[in-house]
Structure to design on (414 residues):
């Protein structure tokens, strides 16, 4: 399917020549990464990019920002807090390096920090109010260990100092305490309901106090700032000044971040994986449509009960099913050499046949009526689903043998 033209280089061999499209590209993104993301030294590696992913999955800052909002309903587990601290934008804000994170991890493990901010936080969760294994208890041990030697046995005010903090660790400990105090205070401030305008200011403070993106990540931060600005202008557009809970705001932000696309990854000099979007009728040598299942495409949009437009349709109303039909035709016209379509044709339960999308069926019917194919021509093939199937195993062995022969010829200078 993907072959380089003569006298081509890896940097330009696939540019503007191969593209894979899927309506919901985020579903296939993990599998694409698993297959194509090989080391640069691997001879089987093909340059690729995945475009049109929502900022929530494509942006480290977007996911981390939502995780801060989730901490209000959590037990402040050490693993969740440290996962947030490992985000590059958070480390930059508190001037921490990768080596500092390893040191902080060892402190958390040795001081026994597990979950909960303090005993009051545990009481709010309906649990016994004890301070052992909380963040407050662990930080007090670290600070007291720097100030007073405990020698592993001397207790000061019911607190055993942690002796392995000295010298240059003081600066790192101060940054770590600043991070925890800032995070815990901001998360606790989310418990009170607010108006949309107040939430916009509060969440803006979280973004500025916890994240410092680098130049490449500034675009992601700007998208979040724009969403928060639009949230703050809701009261000006409609007469809505009621106070809402953080759960409502979190759900609203999640929906917006899923729809926002950064625009990275389209036509970057390799095989492009992208969603089926309008206004992309760009000619490609090879176009592949994956996931064209009968229950996936065209999209079956169920209208809401209060949707008056759906209840009383009129000429000119937008129809997403018709939009999908147009996108399919537009994609077909963009293919110059090969047009590949794949779908799940057998049931995973009983192996019974499953029809493709109605658009694929119509295309197959048209090909059968309009063209006379040569005897034995294979324009429609069935592939096995399981990777251990004998036909697929033979194909993998043949490809591995071809690569081995090519490497041997390259070593001989052929």
């Amino acid at each position: 399917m993907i072959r380089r033209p003569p006298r081509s280089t890896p940097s330009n061999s696939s540019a503007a020549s191969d593209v894979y499209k899927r309506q919901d590209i985020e579903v296939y993104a993990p599998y694409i990464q698993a297959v194509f993301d090989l080391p640069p030294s691997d001879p089987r590696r093909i340059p690729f990019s995945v475009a049109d992913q929502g900022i929530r999955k494509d942006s480290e800052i977007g996911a981390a920002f939502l995780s801060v909002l989730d901490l209000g309903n959590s037990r402040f587990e050490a693993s969740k807090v440290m996962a947030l601290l490992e985000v590059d934008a958070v480390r930059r804000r508190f001037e921490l390096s990768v080596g500092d994170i390893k040191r902080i991890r060892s402190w958390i493990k040795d001081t026994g920090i597990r979950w909960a901010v303090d005993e009051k936080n545990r009481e709010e969760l309906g649990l016994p109010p004890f301070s052992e294994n909380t963040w407050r208890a662990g930080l007090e041990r670290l600070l007291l260990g720097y100030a007073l030697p405990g020698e592993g046995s001397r207790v000061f005010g019911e607190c055993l100092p942690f002796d392995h903090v000295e010298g240059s660790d003081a600066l790192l400990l101060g940054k770590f305490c600043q991070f925890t105090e800032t995070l815990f205070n901001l998360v606790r401030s989310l418990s009170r309901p607010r108006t949309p305008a107040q939430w916009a200011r509060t969440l803006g403070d979280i973004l500025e106090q916890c994240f410092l993106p680098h130049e490449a990540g500034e675009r992601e931060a700007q998208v979040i700032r724009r969403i928060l600005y639009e949230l703050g202008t809701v009261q000006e557009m409609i007469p809505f000044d009621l106070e809402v809970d953080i759960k409502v705001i979190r759900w609203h932000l999640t929906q917006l971040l899923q729809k926002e696309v950064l625009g990275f990854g389209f036509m970057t000099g390799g095989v492009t994986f992208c969603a089926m979007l309008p206004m992309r009728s760009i000619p490609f040598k090879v176009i592949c449509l994956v996931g064209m299942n009968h229950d996936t495409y065209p999209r079956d949009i169920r209208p809401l009960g209060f949707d008056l437009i759906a209840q009383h349709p009129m000429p000119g109303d937008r129809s997403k099913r018709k939009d999908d039909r147009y996108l399919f035709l537009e994609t077909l016209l963009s293919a110059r050499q090969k047009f590949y379509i794949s779908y799940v044709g057998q049931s995973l339960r009983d192996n019974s046949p499953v029809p493709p999308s109605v658009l694929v069926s119509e295309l197959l019917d048209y090909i059968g009526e309009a063209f006379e194919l040569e005897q034995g021509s294979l324009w429609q093939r069935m592939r096995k689903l399981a990777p251990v199937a004998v036909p697929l195993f033979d194909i993998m062995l043949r490809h591995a043998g071809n690569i081995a022969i090519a490497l041997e010829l390259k070593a001989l200078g052929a």
User: Anything to note?
Assistant: The longest helix spans residues 390-412. The CA atoms of residues 1 and 10 lie 16 Å apart.
